[in-house]
Amino acid sequence: MKRLFLSLTLGVIVVAVVLVVRTLTFTSRQVAAEEGTPLVVDAEAASTRLAGALRLKTVAASEGQPADDAAFEALHAYLREHFPRVHAALKREPVGAHSVLYTWQGTDASLRPVLLMGHLDVVPVADGTESAWVHPPFSGVVVDGYVWGRGALDDKGSVLAQLEAVEALLAAGEQPRRTVLFAFGADEEVGGTQGAVAIAALLKERGVRLESVLDEGGVIMSGTVPGVSAPVALVGTSEKGFVSVELKVKGEGGHSSMPPPSTAVGVLARAVAKLEATPMPTRLAGGSRELFERVGPEMGFGMKLLFANLWLTEPLVVKQLAAKPTTNAAVRTTTAVTVFEGGVKDNVLPSGARAVVNFRILPGDSVAGVLEHVRETVDDARVELGTLAFQSEPSPVSPTDADSWRHLERSVRQVFPQAVVSPYLNVAATDSRHFVGLSDNVYRFFPVHLQREDLARIHGQDERISVSGYRDAVRFYAAYLRNTAR
């Protein structure tokens, strides 16, 4: 017994030493912040140009509603007018009805091009809610240090900031060694099939292989990662997939006074309850794992000990993440029942019932795997399964040990020297998913510093971007172009 006790004590000491040593050697992986070549940005003039673009109601076509062709045509005319150097120096190719591909030709044709992306369409504003905005959603005004309007953050702010950066670099007489492409779709909010998909197909047909892709995605956030006081620049290295599974049950109908043991609604309700009670398994991998490996060294000793030793603490970390909806999405394929239909009258048995369950798929899982999970979990032959038309597989995880990542990281640190740069898993869909076959290095990042409450403005009420934040976005894109295309 004494020998066993000594062995256990020695084991505890060894584990404790390993934990402490790993924690002490868990040091920062941030590149040194350096001052880049200064870019003078007239923030007020740039913000005024963005505001003008926000006045154009470029809502993409959806659910039988056509796009406002005149609004998109007006936007393209607006861009030609306000970015004359861009339109004189870059090749402009319309793609589909309203999307566009720009080419800034580099001096070294042996280098693979880089692609920057954004989208020109915006989500609509729900009828009857316009009066709740501080400033009307399509007024496009600069007030109190902010540019207000639908699309300021998603995603005209990104598109125009890129054009501002190129216009400024051209004015300074700069030209890239590496060719730079700019792909601006006009239907990202409804799947990108006529915009990004068509542009990706065009590049593939031409045999283009891209060095890297940069699209919208993560932002710079303060107070998002517990234990990290510095703002964190979240760069999406992958994004989740998407599939909506349709469940249908047929019933006999008839009068409710003589019901069967279970109606179509009852059968379907049990199936849905099983799915909610049996979520897909958790996994800390890819961008979600790298997030903690990158930000962990910036934390205090206790939190640093936790993330420096995931070999031991991972089950605890995952359990804590899975306990909250905001972080649960980072560690599993999520299950969300979004539609439930059945029955027409309180005294009539339903002749059928229908539900839709939306799954956001974690990299490493698949659409086929989700369907198998649903079949096994429901395990009821009375429930018919199908999928809705739109679906996408999760993207591969882009590397953080490639030059493309290092150029991006360096650019962030030049413009936002206080920010901690970290990979993360993008839980929403972007147009970049259509380009994963053209490059191994696909990143999702919009260079703007937001507070937590600002996230509700994206697709929500009072969308806006600060004048200073927009200026820094322009400066970032200029730095990124200099770093990645020289």
Automatic annotation (TrEMBL):
Cited NCBIfam families: PRK08262.1-4
InterPro entries linked to this entry: ArgE/DapE_CS, Bact_exopeptidase_dim_dom, Pept_M20A, Peptidase_M20, Peptidase_M20_dimer
The Peptidase M20 dimerisation domain, residue ranges: 238-381
Cross-referenced PANTHER family: N-FATTY-ACYL-AMINO ACID SYNTHASE/HYDROLASE PM20D1, N-FATTY-ACYL-AMINO ACID SYNTHASE_HYDROLASE PM20D1
Family, per entry: Belongs to the peptidase M20A family.
Protein's UniProt keywords contain Metal-binding: yes
Signal peptide extent: none
Protein name, per record: M20 family peptidase
Lineage of the species this protein comes from: Bacteria, Pseudomonadati, Myxococcota, Myxococcia, Myxococcales
Pfam family, one: Peptidase_M20
Keyword annotations from UniProtKB, A to Z: Hydrolase, Metal-binding, Protease, Zinc
